[in-house]
């Protein structure tokens, strides 16, 4: 892929005047002449980008989608992708080792947890890749710190201010609709943290809205009026017919946006995205049945938003409960079942929608766990672990070598795939974003996409 | 240079501004009374607030534990008993953590010296330490008290105190730093984030500085700081251009000698209290005085609060309320008690600022980073809750304390039983005329008039409801006026 694919700049030659922009804009049709100035600029930029078909515009409803699934708490990688061909595994885990005859083989050394039969199905049909031994140098075993390292794609000894997805939004999605990043849950994840924050989060669409207690009406209009930028009808006329060049840098406002203007802009974003999310939630009930679990609910919601055409590049979903220090067998089995059933339902949903080819899902966890079980038949914090990458547009297979159970690094599995190579690949080859710019340096790309 | 504000320039809006920034705001009556004191006395009242420690006694659980004893006790237990005990400790810790947050929020809300609490909040964001790693509510409380003690005392003493603070020793791994294997975490952050800022030291300074902070331990018998001389590296260090067998305190003294230190701190204080991106000359003027006074914070704040720049259009209503400011100030302007601890902590988590749990050692980014579409909508809906209109969706405490916890019990909708007393918040005298009513609420909520156009929007809303608006209309008007960008400003 050449560098030119990464240029996401408005092509000034494609459009000549604002009037023409408004006539031809895919978004212009939806807005009246009282369009706020910042939106005119934003739409203009996007529209100019859309005009160059070689470039993936961030607002396109047919663009690639990345779903990031966090397995929070530190998933036991060795009981997820099981090194069943290694005696050391069974010696280290006499109680919690997965019996050889139940493992679903991927090759004669490693196989999937017996609960992951659905994932094996996806693997066989060419829609799942399994990455073994993913981690980073000098692994940190604190949930807090290691999660931060994964979320910000930093080196272990550096604190990075912004999240890796936030930096992607910053560098490639300027001026995009705030639903460019959607986190299912109540918080915006640290990975969305950005210099110019964008992205929305909601757990239940029906709560992602302004609630008012006025039964007799009137409030809604006041709310809408107060939560949009001041409109000056003169502005449009003033600029109409102006040369494109003066607008080319539109994503950088000519004056520093005041705090009030910033708030008004965000307030309008909130209104518009809330309207859209609610509308989609109403129009698109889940088309397939999902397991009644927190993960199932979240993935179902993502499925509905994708079906409804929300202009989202990145969805973020989390499954908790992986911190299995004590008597882990039952808990981990349940988690694997939920993961398997959730992902199978999600892939079915996307296939039924015809959207499977535009969606790639990636799992990650802050760390794997120690090789040996502990005194409480659980496992303590470890290091390298596998990741799954699923989707209709990926290259399937088993990537990376299983870390040696013989040669450990401070008692833990040594990584042989840097997780930032996975990020870089998904950025460069899937989202078509310059990974070097987003991640600060070029990581080797993998053949997963 | 800073220009002093003149006494005759003092007015209601400046009084409100000082109350908002130095503390957490006030009611219309409080602002008026404060204004009538005159500029001189008003600033003095802020800086000479009373000691409120008898009013806010330490929480009953805030006692050191004998960790050694606890450890020995646990060694005698069966695995099942141990598990049970660990779960019990976890449960207690979550409870204490919630109580601790509430203890501090109440102090912010009701202290007769809100300036001290606001400064403590600043230093908490500056020496950002999180219970997520420290996992000991007592030590978090202890650090909070230490920051309060030094809040507008001497910065140098505060940095030395933080270098020995047990919660900090855990947070930045100093307690694990050994002579043969110094941990660089604290040495790096003390320069990068606490005193100098990046670019004012080298990697070598970090490595050499780390040696000076070796041998700092926590005594497991009573959770106090303990110096372990055998773990201290007594060798000669080269640090910021000087050479000697420096101790940790020596290193801090050398740092305080750097002009960059006073600049770094005054810039950050100015940003927190006045506005972002202050002019370098302004910072330089403040910084040279700060250094000249051996880092006394109170005189610095005195200069700041007396400067015309602090009351300039760049400053007044240019800030976005932090979530903590939003919660405390809302409770003040609506003259209501704080919501239940679970509700408040839930809300603060949604809004992005849980005290004692900053996201990382850099603290909260603040400013525009507080606002996303979700947090803004949440603020609006939190306003609906605050006026007693709607319910608020909250998660169980376990999930609040540990977002990685399993789903567990289902979340629920909380109701507010402490809605504002409308008779008090909106006096009958102002209700007869929509213009007067909106003006009155503008002052109560924003301490600032709206643009004529925006004001008209609310006046029309009231007019459509007919004369003598009922309580529902008034409540909804409050909600509407708080569901605005304007209400997020201070």
Condensed summary:
The complex is a heterodimer of chains A (449) and B (490). With 449 residues, chain A is an alpha/beta fold.
Which helices and strands, and how do they pair?
The complex is a heterodimer of chains A (449) and B (490).
Chain A lengths: L17 H7 L12 H15 L13 E7 L9 E2 L4 H6 L11 E2 L5 E2 L4 H8 L3 E8 L7 H10 L11 H9 L8 E4 L15 E3 L16 H8 L6 H7 L5 H4 L10 H25 L10 H14 L6 E6 L8 H26 L5 E6 L20 E7 L5 E3 L17 E2 H12 L4 H5 L10
Parallel strand pairs in A: 1-8, 1-9, 5-11, 5-12, 6-7, 6-8
Antiparallel strand pairs in A: 2-4, 3-4, 5-10, 9-10
Helix pairs in contact in A: 4-12, 11-12
Chain B lengths: L11 H11 L5 H9 L2 H9 L19 H9 L3 H32 L3 H13 L4 H4 L2 H14 L4 H10 L1 H6 L13 H11 L7 H10 L3 E4 L4 E4 L9 E3 L2 E3 L3 H9 L2 H15 L6 H13 L4 H10 L16 H11 L7 H11 L21 H14 L5 E3 L2 H5 L10 E3 L7 H4 L8 H12 L6 H13 L6 H12 L2 H4 L2
Antiparallel strand pairs in B: 1-2, 3-4, 5-6
Helix pairs in contact in B: 1-2, 1-3, 3-16, 5-8, 5-18, 6-8, 8-9, 9-13, 11-12, 14-15, 22-23
């Amino acid at each position: 892929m050449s560098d030119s694919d990464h240029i996401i700049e408005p092509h000034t030659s494609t459009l000549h005047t604002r009037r023409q922009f408004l006539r031809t804009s895919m978004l212009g049709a939806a807005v009246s002449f009282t369009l706020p100035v910042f939106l005119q600029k934003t739409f203009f930029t996007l529209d100019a980008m859309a005009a160059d078909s070689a470039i993936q515009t961030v607002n396109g409803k047919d663009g690639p989608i990345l779903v990031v699934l966090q397995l929070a708490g530190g998933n036991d990688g060795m009981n997820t992708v099981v090194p069943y061909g290694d005696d050391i595994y069974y010696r280290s885990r006499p109680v919690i080792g997965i019996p050889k005859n139940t493992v679903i083989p991927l090759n004669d050394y490693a196989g999937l947890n017996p609960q992951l039969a659905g994932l094996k199905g996806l693997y066989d049909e060419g829609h799942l890749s399994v990455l073994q031994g993913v981690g980073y140098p000098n692994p940190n075993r604190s949930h807090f710190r290691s999660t931060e390292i994964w979320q910000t794609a930093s080196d272990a000894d550096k604190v990075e201010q912004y999240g890796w997805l936030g930096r992607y939004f910053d560098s490639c999605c300027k001026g995009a609709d705030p639903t460019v990043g959607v986190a299912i849950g109540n918080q915006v994840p640290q990975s969305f943290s950005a210099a110019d924050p964008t992205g929305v989060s909601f757990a239940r669409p029906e709560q992602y809205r302004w609630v008012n207690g006025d039964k007799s009406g009137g409030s809604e209009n006041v709310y809408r009026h107060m939560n949009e930028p001041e409109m000056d009808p003169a502005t449009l006329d003033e600029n109409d017919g102006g040369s494109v060049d003066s607008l080319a840098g539109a994503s950088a406002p000519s004056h520093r946006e005041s705090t009030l203007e910033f708030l008004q802009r965000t307030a309008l974003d909130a209104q518009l995205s809330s309207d859209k999310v609610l509308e989609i939630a109403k129009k698109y009930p889940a088309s397939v049945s999902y397991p009644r679990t927190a993960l199932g609910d979240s993935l179902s919601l993502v499925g509905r938003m994708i079906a409804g055409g929300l202009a989202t590049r990145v969805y973020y979903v989390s499954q908790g409960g992986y911190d299995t220090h004590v008597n882990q067998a039952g808990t981990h089995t349940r988690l694997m079942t939920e993961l398997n059933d959730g992902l199978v339902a999600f892939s079915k949903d996307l296939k039924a929608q015809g959207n499977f080819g535009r969606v790639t899902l990636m799992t990650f966890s802050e760390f794997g766990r120690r090789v040996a079980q502990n005194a409480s038949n659980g496992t303590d914090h470890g290091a390298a672990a596998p990741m799954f990458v699923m989707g209709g547009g990926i290259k399937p297979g088993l990537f990376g070598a299983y870390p040696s159970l013989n040669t450990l690094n401070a008692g833990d599995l040594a990584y042989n795939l840097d997780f930032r190579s996975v990020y870089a690949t998904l950025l460069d080859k899937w989202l078509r974003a310059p990974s070097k710019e987003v991640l600060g340096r070029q990581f080797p790309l993998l053949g997963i996409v | 240079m800073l220009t002093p504000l003149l006494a005759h320039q003092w007015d209601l809006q400046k009084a409100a501004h000082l109350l908002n920034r130095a503390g957490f705001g006030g009611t219309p009556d409080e602002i008026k009374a404060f204004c009538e004191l005159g500029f001189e006395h008003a600033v003095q009242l802020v800086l000479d607030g009373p000691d409120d420690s008898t009013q806010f006694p330490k929480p009953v659980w805030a006692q050191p534990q004998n960790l050694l004893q606890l450890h020995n006790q646990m060694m005698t237990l069966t695995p099942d008993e141990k598990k049970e005990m660990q779960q019990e400790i976890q449960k207690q810790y979550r409870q204490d953590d919630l109580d601790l947050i509430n203890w501090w929020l109440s102090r912010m809300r009701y202290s007769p010296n809100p300036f001290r609490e606001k400064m403590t909040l600043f230093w908490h964001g500056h020496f950002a330490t999180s219970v997520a790693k420290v996992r000991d509510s007592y030590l978090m409380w202890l650090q909070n008290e230490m920051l309060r003690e030094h809040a507008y005392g001497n910065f140098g003493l505060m940095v030395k105190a933080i270098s020995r603070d047990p919660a900090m020793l855990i947070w930045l791994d100093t307690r694990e730093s050994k002579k043969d294997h110094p941990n660089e975490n604290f040495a790096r952050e003390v320069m990068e984030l606490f005193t100098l800022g990046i670019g004012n030291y080298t990697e070598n300074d970090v490595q050499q500085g780390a040696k000076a902070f070796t041998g700092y331990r926590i005594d497991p018998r009573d959770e106090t700081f303990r110096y372990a001389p055998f773990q201290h590296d007594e060798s000669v260090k080269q640090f910021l251009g000087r050479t000697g067998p420096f101790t940790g305190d020596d290193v801090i003294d050398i740092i305080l000698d750097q002009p960059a230190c006073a600049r770094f701190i005054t810039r950050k204080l100015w940003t927190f209290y006045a506005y972002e991106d202050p002019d370098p000359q302004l910072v330089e003027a403040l910084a040279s005085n700060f250094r000249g006074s051996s880092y006394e914070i109170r005189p610095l704040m005195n200069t700041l609060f007396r400067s015309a720049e602090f009351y300039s259009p760049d400053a007044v209503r240019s800030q976005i309320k932090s979530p903590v400011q939003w919660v405390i100030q809302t409770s003040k302007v609506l003259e209501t008690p704080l919501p239940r601890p679970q509700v408040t902590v839930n809300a603060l988590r949604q809004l992005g600022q849980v005290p004692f749990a900053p996201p990382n050692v850099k603290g909260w980014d603040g400013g525009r980073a507080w606002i996303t579409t979700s947090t803004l909508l949440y603020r609006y809906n939190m306003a609906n809750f605050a006026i007693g209109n709607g319910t608020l969706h909250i998660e169980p405490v376990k999930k609040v304390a540990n977002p990685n916890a399993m789903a567990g019990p289902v979340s629920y909708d909380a109701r507010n039983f402490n809605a504002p007393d409308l008779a008090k918040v909106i006096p009958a005298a102002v209700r007869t005329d929509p213009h007067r009513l909106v003006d009155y609420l503008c002052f109560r909520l924003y301490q600032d008039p709206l643009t004529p156009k925006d004001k008209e929007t609310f006046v029309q809303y009231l007019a459509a409801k007919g004369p003598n608006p009922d309580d529902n209309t008034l409540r909804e008007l409050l909600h509407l006026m708080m569901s605005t960008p304007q209400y997020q400003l201070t």
